[in-house]
Design brief:
Blueprint (H helix, E strand, L loop, with lengths): L1 H6 L7 E4 H9 L5 E3 L9 E4 L1 H19 L2 E8 L2 E8 L30
Parallel strand pairs: 2-4
Antiparallel strand pairs: 1-3, 4-5
């Protein structure tokens, strides 16, 4: 997520971000999203472009809700990284397509598009 949020060319500068608060605020915007309120995860700070990072996490959460009905988010520190886990109730991604989902603007189902809903 951070790599994606820092990759795009933009004038936005990296800032110290309370990642826990950002994820909590995104989760609060959805009825079908729960957020693991683990006090050990509070105050996890990262350096990123705030608008880009929020857009990236929102996109992931929106996809989880759209294709997986309900989503559950959790955060934890892992060595020198912050790990955001998003679980949903969807069918999952076929093993053969896992690498493809990390490209920009990828839709796995060719039948889904903006006109047909997906």
């Amino acid at each position: 997520v951070i790599d994606f949020a820092t990759f795009e060319v933009t004038e936005e500068k990296n800032e110290r971000i309370d990642f826990w608060s950002l994820v909590e605020s995104i989760a609060d915007g959805y009825d079908d999203v729960s957020f693991d309120d683990d006090t050990r995860s509070r105050g996890l700070i990262c350096m990123a472009r705030p608008v880009a990072l929020k857009r990236c996490v929102t996109n992931l959460v929106q996809n989880a809700v759209t294709y997986g009905k309900k989503a559950h988010l959790s955060l934890r520190r892992s060595d020198n990284m912050i790990l955001l886990t998003i679980r949903d109730e969807g069918p999952g991604i076929p093993q053969a397509q896992i690498d493809a989902v990390f490209g920009s603007f990828v839709r796995l189902e060719q039948s889904r598009n903006r006109q047909t809903g997906g």
